[in-house]
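Record 1 of the preview.
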Amino acid sequence: MKVKKYAVLCCVISLVFALALGVTAFFLLGSYEAQTPNNVLAYLFRFFFITTPGMIVLTLITIIRVKVNE
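->
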């Protein structure tokens, strides 16, 4: 049971850091290229719609693997 909690905690922490780094990178890239707030928001929305489902799927796969291995 401790392994499962540790794995879930690691997945959540990595998800939060990945989102924070991705948002920062896209915000900086968008503000450098676009120079307008609307284009910066477009970069942020693209990032969220492309990467968030992938991160959720990877987190679920990791949790399922931990459950299977126990």
